[in-house]
Amino acid sequence: MRVLAIIVNYRTAGMALDCVASLEAERKSSPGLEAIIVDGGSDDGSSTRIKAAIAERGWATWVTLLTLEENLGFAFGNNAGLRWAFDAGRAPDYVLFLNPDTVVRPGALRVLVDALEAHPEAGIAGSRLEDPDGTPQVSAFRFHSVLSELDAGLRFGPATKALKRWAVPIGIPATSCETDWVSGAAMLVRRKVLDDVGLLDEGYFLYYEDVDFCLAAHRAGWRCRHEPQSRIIHLVSQSTGGISETRMKARRRPRYWFDARRRYFIKNHGLLYALCADSAWLAGYSLWRCRRLLQRKQDLDPPRFLWDFFRNSAFLRGGVAQ
User: Fold this and answer.
1) What digits encode the pLDDT tens for the residues 212-241?
2) β partners of residue 65
3) CA distance 217 to 200
4) 275: which DSSP letter?
5) 57, 132, 188, 280: which has the fewest C-beta neighbours closer than 10 Å?
């Protein structure tokens, strides 16, 4: 069983090497495991450091470094790794997409492979992501919708309860289950899925490429599974500068996040649906901001979030999946 783990690095050489080191033990149960580190044009000496570590640690028989000239995004980097494998005649049976800010717990890969082997209708399986102390992170999700966007903006308990069946996060499942999509931070994909739907959409620089890929697989008839017995440490946002961290004051949201969100809705549901989704979020979030002021709740949102959302919405930048 050939498994190719792809780790896209950009100025995070230390974490990428720790990630590969955690994979080394997985080769005992998955001897066909290979890894490729794709460096997206890091200008901090990452490639030199990674190349030296591969030689010093004796990884050259199963770890490859692929150096790109520039950083063109997460999807582009992963696709570069896939193209390298196919061109080299080393096409895998499974592809493991891994963030550089992950550490694989013992046996995690085997659980994912066994899950897909046991469920031929499933083409994608995701791990339970967790903090270093074992605290679970939400790792299984529903597809985004107008109602999920309303709930995300509103943040009002009774409304959240009423809209629970549409909420994107589905909680922390204790047992193996089907789900709409799983995080690309740790996602195993059957090669046949790639044959059916193609590679990741390089129109996404960062964020939403995983949900877009899972939706394409879903529309092609493939199922997606969440496997909580496969446990992987995820150092949340360490490789992306804190964008996904919800437990502290966030930095201003970068434009590529808004571009990715807008692209996802327009590409998959059309401009009218994207406008409805944006309207739902803007209305809900505006009400939340008023309620936060009245109730003097702590503000953990990114600076200028409402304005940035509106000026990057489908209202002002719609028409094409930019």
Assistant:
1) 999 999 999 999 999 999 999 999 866 555
2) 37
3) 11
4) H
5) 132
